[in-house]
């Protein structure tokens, strides 16, 4: 009889937990991506510039940020930021100039739509680039 009661108690606890967790379908999924307003935090623009500044291989000039259009955050062991933005060639030469959001201004039309994932672990003062992919404006993005 004790085994049946234990099984019933476990079943009840599991069902209750499922109801509590799934009660509100608009709740945030733990570990999932949450959409943010791009203009709500200046850090998002700074992180987009950071991602762009890391793109040096095979290039002669830096691109620069034109418009940050989408931001998503994901809480993990730190925070992941998925940033969607447009870029244009800048007036900064790789190997000669240090990339700076203030110094590296766009000098041509928008040349790409990019998605970058940047991670940040504040308690270790760590920032890194997980992925960066761009496509020419008006085309599908490739990794």
Brief account:
The chain has 143 residues and is of the alpha+beta class. The protein has helices at residues 2-22, 42-53; strands spanning 34-36, 61-76, 78-93, 112-121, 126-135.
Question: How is this structure best described in words?
Answer:
With 143 residues, this protein is α+β, with helices and mostly antiparallel strands. It has one domain: Nuclear Transport Factor 2, Chain: A (Roll). It contains two helices and five strands, in the order αβαββββ. The protein has helices at residues 2-22, 42-53; strands at residues 34-36, 61-76, 78-93, 112-121, 126-135. A five-stranded antiparallel β-sheet has the order 1-2-3-4-5. The chain is globular. The relative contact order is 0.15.
How far apart are the termini? 59 Å
For the sheet with most strands, the description reads: 5 strands, antiparallel
CATH architecture: Roll
Strand content bin? 35-45%
Please state the CA-atom Rg, rounded to the nearest Å. 22 Å
DSSP strand count = 5
CATH class: Alpha Beta
Fraction of helical residues:
10-25%
The side-by-side strand order for the widest beta sheet comes to 1-2-3-4-5
What is the arithmetic mean of pLDDT? 84
Question: Overall 3D geometry?
Answer: globular
Order of helices and strands: HEHEEEE
How many structural domains are formed by the residues? Answer: 1
In the CATH scheme, what's the topology name? Answer: Nuclear Transport Factor 2, Chain: A
**Unreliable residue stretches:** 7-27
Number of contiguous helices: 2
Label the structural class.
Answer: alpha+beta
Domain Cystatin: 28-135
GO cellular component, one term: vesicle
Protein name: Cystatin domain-containing protein
Signal peptide: 1-18
């Amino acid at each position: 009889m004790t085994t049946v009661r234990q099984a019933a108690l476990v079943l009840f606890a599991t069902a209750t937990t499922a109801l509590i967790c799934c009660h509100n379908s608009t709740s945030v999924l733990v570990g999932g991506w949450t959409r943010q307003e791009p203009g709500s935090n200046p850090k998002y623009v700074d992180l987009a510039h950071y991602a762009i500044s890391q793109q040096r291989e095979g290039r002669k000039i830096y691109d620069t940020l034109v418009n940050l259009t989408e931001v998503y955050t994901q809480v993990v062991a730190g925070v992941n930021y998925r940033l969607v933005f447009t870029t244009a060639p800048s007036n900064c030469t790789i190997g000669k100039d240090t990339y700076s959001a203030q110094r590296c201004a766009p000098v041509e039309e928008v040349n790409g739509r990019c998605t970058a994932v940047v991670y940040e672990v504040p308690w270790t003062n760590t920032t890194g680039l997980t992925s960066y992919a761009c496509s020419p404006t008006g085309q599908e993005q490739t990794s």
